[in-house]
Each structure stands twice: as C-alpha cells, then as structure tokens.
Design goal:
mainly alpha
C-alpha cells in the first residue's frame, strides 16, 4: 500500500506514514481496516466488509480507560469500557478467586493503556487521547 499524501510505501495497517507523518489514508474516504478507497457516505467497506467510521466516531478515551484500569481494573471495568466483555468477565473471576490479588492485572493494564502500549478497542479503533 502507498501513502496517499507522499506516495511512499507503508505497511498495510500503518496509522501514520513514516515519511510524511500523516495518515496514509488522507481522510475518511478510505477504509480504516484495509486502506482501500471508499465512498465518503458508505457505511461498510465493499472490499473487506468492515464498518466505516468518520473521524472520532465511537472512539474511546485512552485516559478514561487507563484510569478505570488503575482504580477498578480488578473488576474488568476498563475492559468492558473498551468492548472486551469476555476478558472483563475473566478479570472479575480471577480477582474473586485470588481474594483480590488478581486486581494487579487490571492495575498493570491501566498503566499500559496510559503509556500507549495498549492502544485499540475491541473494534480495533485507536483510542483517542
């Protein structure tokens, strides 16, 4: 795939071009999943079937998710917020079975979210700052 701004080759799932530093998709008329051009008013990509979103639509906050992970991560609240329902339930079970020691898992994930090591929600949309 090539950057629509500068023409340099970029990785298929790259969010930014290493050459020009801008989004290689150049706006919302490209699929966020596969990068193929789409109609600006389309709801789904005709190539890969992914739901198309406009800029910022449905994005979850990195700060909110990180703080939820640090404060109540043992109950998987940050995972529920990001759409990872199954892992959220597992975190509740682990916290209960380990008499609270499992909450360390959520605390660490909260820190990872805030540092940018965990940067997408369940629908693979990037978290906003």
């Amino acid at each position: 795939m090539f950057c629509r701004n500068c023409g340099k080759e970029v990785a298929p799932n790259a969010e930014y071009c290493a050459e020009c530093g801008r989004s290689p998709y150049n706006g919302t008329s490209y699929c966020q999943n596969c990068g193929e051009p789409t109609d600006a008013h389309a709801i789904v990509c005709v190539k890969c079937g992914a739901r198309l979103t406009s800029a910022g639509e449905g994005q979850k906050s990195k700060i909110v998710a990180g703080i939820l992970g640090i404060l109540v991560g043992g109950f998987g609240v940050h995972r529920f917020y990001l759409g990872f329902i199954g892992i959220g339930i597992i975190q509740i079970v682990v916290t209960l079975v380990t008499a609270g020691a499992g909450s360390l898992w959520g605390f660490i994930e909260g820190i990872l979210i805030l540092t940018g090591n965990f940067d997408k929600d369940a629908q693979k949309r990037p978290l906003k700052d």
